[in-house]
Amino acid sequence: MSQEISRRKLFRTTAAIGGLAAVGGLAPRAAARPDYPPAYPFPLPTIFHSPPLAKFVDEMVPPPVRSGVGDLSVTARSGRARMHRDLPSVPSFGYSDMPYLGATIDGRIGEPTTFRYRNELLRHPFAADIDTTLHGVSESYRDRPPNSLHLHGAVTAPDSDGNPERLLMPRVGTAVHHYPNRQEAGHLWYHDHAMGITRTNVYAGLAGNFLLRDDHDTGDASNRLGLPSGEYEYPLILQEKIFTADGHMSLRSTPVVPQGRWEGGAVGDVGMINGTVWPKITVDRGLYRFRILNAGSYSVWTLHLSDATPMWVIGNEGGVLDAPVRVRSFRIAPGERYDVLVDFSGLRPGDTVDLCNREDPPFQAAMLGEVRMPVFGRFVASSRTGFRGRVPSRLRGRPGLPDVLPPIATATSVRNVTVSQPYALRLPPAIMSLNNLRYSDPQLEMPRQGTTEIWNIINVTPDPHPIHIHLVTFRILGRRPLRTVEYQAAHPQPAIGTRWAPAPDRFYAGPSLGPAPWEAGWKDTVRTDGGTVTQVVVRFPAADELGFDPDATFAADPLAGTLDTTGGRSPAAPVSAPPAPMAPGTTPAEMPSAPAPSVTPPSDHSMHDGMHPASGPHMHPSTLQGYVWHCHILDHEDHDMMLRYRVRA
Predict the structure, then answer these.
(1) pTM score of the predicted model
(2) CA distance 486 to 532
(3) Which candidate, 248, 229, 157, places its Cα nearest to that of 572?
(4) CA 96 to CA 16: how far, in whole Å?
(5) What is the pLDDT of residue 17?
(6) In the prediction, which pLDDT does 11 show?
(7) With b meaning 16 or more CB within 10 Å and e meaning fewer, what string describes 221-259?
(8) N- or C-end of the chain: fewer Cβ atoms within 10 A?
């Protein structure tokens, strides 16, 4: 738990920060000047600060690309990464041969991918920061960190989804994950999902891109969409960091919370792209395709280019839009991905354009004194001529292109769910919650297979929260402002552990605003703004469409039914994929909706002492079932803004 703060101390700290704002220390800043002066005129006692680092001095090298067709060996390893010329090599995690992050993997629809996954991690770089009060997190995790590999955005059977309780301990064997790739081409990413320590493992480096291709979006010059490819298609993994005075990564952002206790999230003061601090990126003078991922732990960013050059958003997580959307800026929350075109053909050799952020931190972070991290990196034009194709006018709906996006489906039921921060006089908060529940509470959402629902995601906090639902893609219907004070006064929030999701209908403060054009495609993660009800339309597919039972039980031990510790094959057969890909949200015939109970039969989810020789402690001692949905602010996910759900037959 985070440290208690007395009312007097809290108000004294807030007043001090307010005084700094009055003299300009924390006042909103105008658009950043080219030299990006320091954010802080002097260090603040309420937050940690990175040492001064020169910007745009290290050339960024894109991650290597691996084929995702067939079997791949993927290993989580400890390493040492040097992230800036003036920083030392420091302990980190990475996948396979990389000391930090992982290779970009290119998969193809209809051609299954199998990850043969090993955990070879040594002592955790953030061993002292692991909070052993969360979800049975063990002292042993400091020296033997567990993993649970999740392919974010994949339509996959529950035993390959990276369930946070299906933990693979270091050096015990090989776990197998099967990905049928029966979905539209899109931008997925793989990352760690271990219960209670996702934030520490991803921040240490366990993240990488997975690009799913098809006959239209092939990833090479033959693509029918007319898009840049090869060296002109570039993944950008965006992150924010804090570094200690000796150059190590810092998971902590404030001394208010003692080391070894959950903090609630942190705004970094250093921007990174693909593991390099404030890099320079040499670009040829032409059109580029950037596959942008917010792999940060906390912040929502409003991305723009320093010279107001336009960008064209061409896709979301689940595939391309009908046509490119011209923007000057767009918002991207943790876990979200956007497919973006930028044209550098008008630059002269040596000209520069910076990738910037203009979104200030949310309310609670600002109270501690955290300010906007203004820039990620600098593009520098070379003398070479690059890809000179034009921005396509259409991406769907013409001969040789994918079908247009279907109209948003008609839902047969509405489900209210809440995003809240249970009240306590703490800064940072004591716990974050969905439906006022903890992960271990037995109340589950249980939609029926084959049904379409509207999820009203009711965010009563002042801050944005990106919500990710495993297994499915969905469409955004809109966001509607909510009179949160009246809503909570009429429906007082009970003690944590009692489901709380009152209908918001009587408390709207205005009309619903539809999604921005650049977020109108297939999504698996949605930004829910503070004080709003975000509506998404989601269809829960049936087993006969998927080729697997989404409600099947499976062993909590990740080695059961896959490979033994010597690497030999088990009798278990991989998931077989039917031949044709399934477009997101489509169905042969709508099934009638049935009431979805929110309570499962009683079971003891408070167990923390069930042990598996290959895996470690689990709340379920032997079997698991279903998927999860959660906030993708990783600190929030760890405590306790993540719940299980089942897709029942």
Answers:
(1) 0.88
(2) 13
(3) 157
(4) 47
(5) 41
(6) 33
(7) eebbbebbbeebbbbbbbbbbbbeeebbbbbbbbebbee
(8) C
| pLDDT 10s digits, 178-199 | 999 999 999 999 999 999 999 9
- The single-letter code of the amino acid at 163 is N
With beta carbons less than 8 A apart as the criterion, state whether 163 and 624 touch: yes
The residue to which tokens 């101390």 are assigned: 9
The residue behind tokens 């292109």 is 401
User: Strands 525-528 and 465-469: what pairing?
Assistant: antiparallel
Please answer whether residues 267 and 250 qualify as being in contact, where contact means their C-beta atoms are separated by less than 8 angstroms: no
Provide φ and ψ at 363, rounded to 5°: -55, -50
Question: Which token pair is 486?
Answer: 């009246």
Using alpha carbons, select from 175, 237, 233 the residue that is nearest to residue 208: 237
d(CA 625, CA 93): 29
Q: Please state, in angstroms and rounded to a whole number, the distance separating the CA atoms of residues 422 and 529.
A: 17
Q: By 3-state DSSP, what share of the chain in percent is helix, strand and coil, each rounded to 5?
A: 10, 35, 55
What the block records as the tokens of 104 is 């970009």
* 385 strand-pairing partners: 285
Tokens of 423: 């009240």
Centroid of chain to Cα 224: 29
Residue 534's Cβ-side half-sphere holds a number of Cα atoms within 13 Å equal to 25
